[in-house]
Amino acid sequence: MTDHKQRAAVKLSDYTPPAFRVEHIDLYFSLGEEYTRVRSRMRLCRAEGTDPHTPLHLDGEALELEALYLDGQALAIDDYLLTRQGLTIERVPDRFELEVHTLLRPQDNTALSGLYRSGGMFCTQCEAEGFRRITYYPDRPDVLSRFTTTIEADRERYPVLLSNGNAVDRGESEGGRHWVRWDDPWPKPSYLFALVAGDLHCHRDRYRTASGRDVQLAFYVEHANAGRTGHAMESLKRAMRWDEETYGLEYDLDIYMVVAVGDFNMGAMENKGLNIFNTQYVLASPETATDADFEAVEAVIGHEYFHNYTGNRVTCRDWFQLSLKEGLTVFREQQFSEAMGSPAVQRIQQVRLLRSAQFPEDASPMAHPVRPDAYVEINNFYTATVYIKGAEVIRMYHTLLGDGAFRNGVRRYLERFDGQAVTIEDFLQTMAETGGRDLTQFGRWYTQAGTPRLRVRDAFDADAGRYTLRVVQECPPTPGQPAKQPFHIPLAMGLVGRDGQALPLRLAGEPEGQATTRVLELTRSEQAFVFEGLAERPVPSLLRGFSAPVILDYDYSDDDLAFLLTHDSDAFARWEAGQQLAVRVILRRVHGERREEDLDKLRRAFAGVLEHPGLDASLAAEALALPQETYLAQQLEQADPVAIRAAREGVRAELAGALAATWRTVYSRYRPQGPWRLEPAAIAGRRLANLALGYLAATGAAEDDERVERQYHQADNMTDSLAALSLLADRDDAAAQAALDDFHQRWRHVPLVLDKWFRVQAMSRHPGALARVQSLLRHPDFDLHNPNRVRSVIGAFAQGNPAAFHDSSGEGYRLLADHILRLDTLNPQVAARMALPLSKWQRYDLPRQQIMKTELQRIAEAPSLSNDVYEVVSRSLE
Ligand code: PHE
Ligand code: ZN
Question: Is the ipTM of this complex over 0.90?
Fold first, then answer.
């Protein structure tokens, strides 16, 4: 059996402070087509209190060392030790200058970490440990230094030369080359370093801060993408304003630059003053981007901007603290999105994502706490747990402390630790102090993995008018953590009277109160809450707003759920009630149980949503969407994704038929008239109309099939075009094929749109989807070098098409494993991510488990596997 412990794990408990500080680093890049030379000049000094004999160790990876000078003296080969991990100089003075010359070949860097090429440009990605692929350096986040960077390159090919901070000098050099020098006044860790060179279009604007300073804003894109940065620019200005108004934080440099690159492992990167973005989260125009894309651009622009404080001004001491910056920044991003749009819809979408991405992770061999305590490859820990469960943890501080104390706490944290690299503990302490609360037990959210389950039972004593809620909390074992201590859980709840009215909540011993939502604080494994003054048995509304990342278990009747869907005052709870009702109906089908009244219940519930007088189209679209297949699978001990697909599609088809007339009315009433506009009402209209179209596609009526085709051909925007195309991709008739061909023909030169063409087919609900994926992987436009393309075929298939991926033949697993092995030689980080669906093998039936494990084993045994993939597959098999 393979064992990830065979490869050295980094442990939180081994942390030691850096032995040397870098006071200043001056970098010189000479960029070339064959190779690039980097000269680094550093002023180093021994950290106070460090043993004077401690050697100097600098991290370095995949580098060619050309020369090394200590205080101007060239070092000979036996003055230092060079390994695959770096460079060690045994004896150094307390203060000295070190000059390092390295040679790189960015054009061969397919891992997209360090300095690499994307299209015609050079760019960098240094988080987490990419800087060591540029030069030898103490590449850890608790070493902060002042950077100056000079970039020299061919003037024609690379007219634009960018790095962090302000451009302070520029000039011409021999052979048609030029250079620009950048100075970043803010000390920063190496992971925030960035460099870009290329022939780029620039969209400029400016922003006046609250205190009246002018900041230049500059978005750089390849010329072909000019004209598609308007939305990102406006989003940035909104984010800057929002952070001033909400947290009193003003931007701290004279220029803010964003560069869009087509080859990028992640979404975007918050490099100081020079964000580098995946094109996916910058470019948006109505013809090429969906409403969801527009929304994602705004969110990611906000996210990276908010990092300027939560991450850059105050950074992480070590990578175990990653959620210190990511959880907090995702939460700030969520607050921003809630402020820009509908808070309830945002919350529903956040929870949907948490349940589809994080809960399964928490239930898998890859489960880890929000603050992990060991890793082999840090890139594997940019996870749903660290990011979005991390954000849920921040949201719970907000719930427990209240908005005012929360904001004061964040501000105090940023002031107290400005310019430092700190820990989650520092944040927690500051919040506890500011809120005047003991958060010791709350800290378990950072150290214990797994999704807690709340079992709620109730009793009503009619004579005493007393209603008791008894709550038991449990958390299943996770790797290395067989038993858990109780969590501190905020449980927001209300009670709804039989007439649908919210009831005042008065706990035993309390005076009269008017509150109709309260936050119960759970701290013990079992607790009871007694409410008094109730004339009749209420229906409890539990976990309002999804106040904690837990699984709630309360035995509602179907009628209770339908009742809450109509009457609950909390929009999230209403949505949740509708979803739970649908979950039940679909799961009964999975179990072969067909109840006559089931469909009727759902039909009435859905019709009720649509007939509601104050109908909010965007909320309705959420409420009428059937629960995702992955979420349904989680409700079962062992899932058969093919059976789940069949049951869910069966229910969809029946709802389509039973409500056909309604869907047609909704479709024509809500489809926005006139030209495309990015306005809340129009966006909501498109959502609801496209949801209706989705049902109509399942009626089997020719008129509805034609409606889908018509929408595809008449659409003047990508939202409507893609909604129709994805329904067509579920069919295999001539009209569907014609539309797919048309789309390819039209968009084959626009990579982000071509990704959509691949994605809709990879996610097709057609029974032949697996075969189609096989041919997509051989398509001339498929490219294993481009992460967006890989995600749009392999990722979409393995994560977004469970019934095809889990085909009982095992072909889906084999195909994935084959591609992981090929991808691992090019880009280990992305390869490891693609392997994650296999890590969830325990959730499926035994025959599937067997094949999944065989494929994991086959990957594990491959020679020269990267640490990235090795860690995922070996943990999965433990
Ligand atoms: N720090 C980036 C973010 O969350 C994500 C990222 C991590 C990007 C690692 C690249 C590499 O905004
Ligand atoms: Zn982030």
Answer: yes
